[in-house]
Each structure stands twice: as structure tokens, then as C-alpha cells.
Write a structure and sequence with these properties.
alpha/beta, four-stranded antiparallel sheet
Length: 220
């Protein structure tokens, strides 16, 4: 299990250049193409709720799910400030456990890349398939093999005043390991360092399609 304690606290600040409105609108456009104009959506690996917010704004009935309690705390604060009510569940997306079928399941922001073993990808796809109504839709994105491979051996650092980070990448067997050190300024001006390691797999699209078919998905 990967930790998100440090990342959760500064995730939104470091991702402030991402156009989540456009991202959410794109997901909504995909759903509408499949006839899902209204209905129940599970937003898996929802993180701090940025895409969840866009789905709620489009008037879907949304449940947010994430394995990180810290991420969900930030999601709850975000959605409450925007006036949205949303059930948030702390759970592994490979083991979805809902008491009703969903019209759609969405997984944005590289959630599937964090599944570094094929058996876990299969578990997620199977769990998603089992919780969709007949005709339901699964939408997800990945960082491409080319993108993750290009990050191997790269070193990044940024100072944003109250938050700074050092980020070093290595890659082995198509798994990118990201060593992150965060420096967060306290009220007394001193900085607290916390460290995390994140791993993402550079999946091949053809492999994912085969696994989707294996778990019952069609019209991919």
C-alpha cells in the first residue's frame, strides 16, 4: 500500500495548473455519448475530489472512493465548501463493495497506473464490472508508456514558498518509482520534511484491452 499522507496535504496546491473543469467535462461527454445523461456514478480513486466535483456539477449522483483517508478528508472539505453533498468511502478500488449497481464508474488521474500488477488491474476491472448495471460504462485514463518512460532517470525540484519538493525517478520492469520529499513550512517559519514513494506501471493499451475483455467488458 502506498502512503498519501504528505501528498494529500499539498496535492491541490501542486496540481493548480490542471484544468479539472475541462477534464470533468470530457468525462461527462463520454458518458453522454453512451446515453448516461443522469444516474449513479462511482468516482474511484477520487483523491481530493477535483473530478468528483465536476461530476456533481453535471448533476450526477456521485459516490467518491479512495484508499487514502487523508485524500478523502481534503475531498470532503472541497465538496462541502462548494455546497455539494457526496458519500465518500475509504476503500481499495480493487475491492468495491456497494449495495446498488452503478450507471458508470470513473477512475481519473492515473489511478490505473498505480495498479502495478496485472492481477490488481484484473481485480479492479472485475470489481467494476460486477458493480455496473447492464449497459453501464467504465471510464478511466492512464499515463502512457511513453510518458512514464520519459520520466525515468529524471530529477525535479520546485520551491513554492510554503511548499517545496524534491522528486527523483527510477524505472525497472516498466514500473516507475517516484521518490518524493516534501518540505512544508510551519507557522513558526521552519520546514517539516516528509518522504513518500509512489509507483506507477507503464501499461500497454493492448494489455488493458485484453484484461477488460477477460472480465466481461465489450464495446471498448
Amino acid at each position: 500500500m502506498q502512503s498519501y499522507e504528505s501528498l494529500a496535504a499539498c496535492y491541490d496546491a501542486l496540481m493548480d495548473d490542471v484544468d479539472y473543469a475541462a477534464w470533468g467535462n470530457y468525462v461527462v461527454s463520454l458518458l453522454k455519448q453512451r446515453g448516461i445523461v443522469r444516474g449513479r456514478i462511482l468516482d474511484a480513486a477520487c483523491g481530493t475530489g477535483a473530478v468528483t466535483e465536476q461530476l456533481l456539477a453535471a448533476r450526477y449522483d456521485v459516490i467518491g472512493l479512495d484508499v487514502s483517508e487523508q485524500m478523502l478528508e481534503h475531498a470532503a472539505n472541497r465538496l462541502r465548501k462548494k455546497g455539494f453533498r457526496c458519500q465518500l468511502i475509504c476503500r481499495d478500488m480493487c475491492d468495491i463493495d456497494l449495495h446498488r449497481a452503478m450507471d458508470a464508474i470513473n477512475c481519473s488521474c492515473d489511478g490505473v497506473n498505480y495498479l502495478t500488477k496485472d492481477r490488481d488491474v484484473l481485480r479492479f476491472f472485475q470489481s467494476a464490472f460486477d458493480h455496473l448495471r447492464p449497459g453501464g460504462v467504465l471510464t478511466f485514463d492512464i499515463s502512457s508508456k511513453e510518458k512514464l518512460s520519459s520520466m525515468a532517470g529524471q530529477f525535479y525540484a520546485e520551491d513554492r514558498g510554503d511548499i517545496a519538493y524534491i522528486w527523483n525517478n527510477t524505472m525497472e520492469d516498466r514500473v516507475l518509482e517516484m521518490d518524493l520529499a516534501f518540505f512544508t513550512r510551519r507557522q513558526d517559519g521552519l520546514y517539516v520534511r516528509t518522504d513518500e514513494v509512489h509507483r506507477q506501471k507503464a501499461h500497454e493499451a493492448d494489455d488493458l484491452i485484453k484484461m477488460l475483455e477477460q472480465t466481461g467488458f465489450m464495446d471498448i
